Amino acid sequence: MTGFGDGTRCVHGGTAQPRPDSPFLASPVFGSAFHLGGSVTYGRSDNPTWRALESAIGALDGGECVVFASGMAAISALLRTCAGTIVLPSDGYFLTRQYVQAELPLKVVTAPTSGPWPAFDGVSLVLVETPSNPGLDVCDITALAAEAHAAGALVAVDNTTATPLGQRPLELGADVVVASDTKALAGHSDVVLGHITCRDAALAERLRQSRTLGGSVPGPFETWLAHRGLGTLDLRLTRQAENAAALYAALREHPMITGLRWPGSPSDPAYPLASRQMRRFNGVLTFQLPSVAAVSDFLAASQLVTAATSFGGLHSTADRRAQWGDPVPDGLVRFSAGCEDTADLVADVLAALPKE
Ligand SMILES: *Cc1c(COP(=O)(O)O)cnc(C)c1O
């Protein structure tokens, strides 16, 4: 699919050559045991539905993709390949830090996404998340990769918020992309899935092996749903980013709102770097309301915004992150603009926000 635009690649990625009587998007293959003689033997080690989605995502990310049962299954498989010291974001997805602490004999050094970075001597892996979740800070992948590579460390980027259309970390110098496809990639709040894409085919093979041995395999139906969702990612991101831009403009001067962040706005401190390294923006904003009660009142008053964790879906959602243990102020809201009509969404949010 080289030479085609994002929309075309999303629609056609991973689809089989057309054959009479076969569907455009192959149906999910549910088998656990396969007739021997070909490459697929058993449902824990391989599956044609995984291969189709891996082909589509791998082409977009620009590397070799391995799908996993969830974003955390992907991240934990990657972290299990590490030894010694690793660097993790102090402000990124908190379960990543919690997983290492609870399960792995690794020394962890943490650093905020916007830096400063620690020395990378003796570090085996540097994991960054940019834009970070939920703070939406951004770090310079190319500069970081140069520094980490000079010290002999691998660089992995959690690309969940950006999606493969928003950012291509492998092109920017990273070695590995990890992502939760539960969010915008699948995009309909009906599936949990993740993937890793590697520049190095040998590392991808090692991760496939880890998936087979560890058994954290994605269900064929979930994989198929994610592939179907990927088909409209380009369209959905366009509307979500339009909605985020309109909300940013409407909320900027709002008396009850502080700390409004959206890296896609020239007024955001992350914009100069984000606009350089990202290919396009998305629908995720962060802001603060004065209290827990103000957030509850807002969510109760809105007709269109659903209180839900997760983000990137078709429907607008908002999540007060402190309730999950994120080290952020009580009233911090991660807002995920969905695909509703822009005028409807802005009017609904403005009407629902507390006036004083
Ligand atoms: C949601 C999320 C994850 C975890 O993914 P799951 O699919 O929920 O396991 C990891 N990283 C980031 C940035 C996320 O937003």
How would you describe what is shown here?
Pfam families: Cys_Met_Meta_PP. The protein has 356 residues and is α/β, with parallel strands linked by helices. The chain has 2 domains: 6-230, Aspartate Aminotransferase, domain 2 (3-Layer(aba) Sandwich); 234-352, Alpha-Beta Complex (Aspartate Aminotransferase, domain 1). Helices cover 36% and strands 16% of the residues. The chain has 12 helices and 12 strands. The chain has helices spanning 6-12, 48-61, 71-80, 94-103, 141-150, 163-166, 201-214, 220-230, 233-251, 271-277, 292-301, 342-352, and strands spanning 64-68, 85-89, 107-111, 123-129, 154-158, 176-180, 194-198, 258-261, 284-288, 306-307, 317-320, 332-336. The strands form 2 sheets. The protein has a 7-stranded mixed β-sheet, with helices on both faces. The protein has a 5-stranded mixed β-sheet with strand order 8-9-12-11-10, with helices on one face. Helix 4 links the parallel strand 2 (85-89) and strand 3 (107-111). The chain is globular, with a radius of gyration of 20 Å. It binds pyridoxal-5'-phosphate. Pyridoxal-5'-phosphate binds next to helix 3.
List descriptors.
Aspartate Aminotransferase, domain 1, binds pyridoxal-5'-phosphate, Cys/Met-Metab_PyrdxlP-dep_enz, five-stranded mixed sheet, lyase, globular, 2 domains, Cystathionine gamma-lyase, pyridoxal phosphate binding, seven-stranded mixed sheet, PyrdxlP-dep_Trfase_small, alpha/beta
